[in-house]
Amino acid sequence: MVIGTIFGQRKGHVWFCFQHHRLSTKPSLLLELSIPTHQLVQEMSSGTVRIALECDHSELSSCPLHSVPIWTMYCNGRKIGFATKRKATRHNRLMLKTMQSITVGAGMIPTGVGSSGSEEIMYMRANYEHVIGNSDYESFHLVNPDECAGQELSVYLMRSR
């Protein structure tokens, strides 16, 4: 199990963070997705969301998946842009520190005094099952805490051949 956090400003792009420990402010993997936050929220309201991130095998065959710098991104089968691996900024680490006490949940984090509503950061944090298929495939699957039907979200990292 890993902790997965999806976050982003309402009018910004989505960030996806995986951590092995929720108390850590250093993510194991941090990706900036090209999908706008409001579009991902809309996709999630329909139920099942599958995000596939694909990289070219020939160019990056010796590179570990977590080190791939740029991915082609698909959401529910539609190509919607790219995802980029990022290093955590001071702002990212501060946001993760703010969320240390949250194990599972969704909500809004104000970005500071005097901020407008559009500056708030939307987030969803949950446990994910981390599956390593081989050196060319990994996936993360949202674990529903109450084991009932509901939000289903998976992220796939794939190196195409």
From TrEMBL:
The family database entries (PANTHER family) matched by this protein are listed as: PROTEIN MIZU-KUSSEI 1 (PTHR31276:SF6), PTHR31276
Q: Which GO BP terms, alphabetically?
A: hydrotropism
Stated name of the protein: Protein MIZU-KUSSEI 1
Task: Give TM regions.
Answer: none
Q: Which domain of life is it from?
A: Eukaryota
